[in-house]
């Protein structure tokens, strides 16, 4: 799990479909805690570790996204998208996917940064 968070990798196209599944109550929060518990097999120490990794990644991502050109912004968004999906930050993953697709569009950049901030605040609250 830690490696997946750092690399931002995805298994295949099914990952997006699975994350876009039914609108479960747990998916209303910035991080789906039910999904996170499933991914970590209920290991609270591992949950805390991956949340800490996400917070660190978010802290690095904001300034990098703000100063990057479109090509680099798309690459950064791709890496964060995979990490976010792996731990259940599905709204952030969707915003990252939008940014990956349209990295030069100011409204997409703003929406991504807003979701990044929202997810970061939530992650810090539960850390």
Task: Describe this entry's structure for a reader.
Residues 60-117 form the HPt domain. With 127 residues, this protein is mainly alpha-helical. The protein is 74% helix and 0% strand. It has a single domain, classed as Four Helix Bundle (Hemerythrin (Met), subunit A), CATH 1.20.120. Helix 4 (44-67) packs antiparallel against helix 7 (106-126), helix 5 (70-87) packs antiparallel against helix 6 (90-101) and helix 6 (90-101) packs antiparallel against helix 7 (106-126). The longest helix has 24 residues, at 44-67. Mean pLDDT is 86; it is low at 1-21.
- Quaternary assembly: single chain
* Amount of beta strand: under 5%
Got a strand count?
0
Query: So, CATH architecture?
Result: Up-down Bundle
What is the CATH class? Mainly Alpha
N-end to C-end Cα span: 17 Å
Radius of gyration: 14 Å
Uncertain segments are 1-21
Mean pLDDT: 86
Q: Say what the CATH topology is.
A: Four Helix Bundle (Hemerythrin (Met), subunit A)
Query: What structural category characterises the helix and strand content?
Result: mainly alpha
SSE succession: HHHHHHH
Question: What is the overall number of helices?
Answer: 7
Keywords: Two-component regulatory system
Protein name: Hpt domain-containing protein
Organism: Jiella sonneratiae
InterPro entries: HPT_dom_sf (IPR036641), Sig_transdc_His_kin_Hpt_dom (IPR008207)
Keywords:
127 residues, mainly alpha, Four Helix Bundle (Hemerythrin (Met), subunit A), globular, two-component regulatory system, HPT_dom_sf, Sig_transdc_His_kin_Hpt_dom, Hpt domain-containing protein
């Amino acid at each position: 799990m830690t490696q997946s968070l750092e690399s931002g990798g995805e298994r295949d196209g099914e990952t997006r479909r699975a994350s876009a599944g039914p609108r479960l109550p747990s998916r209303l929060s910035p991080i789906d805690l039910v999904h996170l518990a499933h991914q970590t097999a209920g290991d609270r120490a591992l949950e805390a570790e991956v949340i800490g990794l996400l917070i660190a990644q978010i802290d690095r991502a904001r300034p990098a996204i703000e100063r990057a050109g479109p090509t680099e912004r798309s690459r950064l968004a791709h890496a964060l998208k995979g990490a976010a999906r792996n731990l259940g930050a599905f709204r952030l993953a969707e915003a990252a996917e939008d940014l990956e697709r349209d990295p030069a569009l100011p409204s997409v950049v703003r929406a991504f940064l807003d979701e990044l901030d929202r997810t970061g605040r939530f992650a810090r609250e539960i850390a």
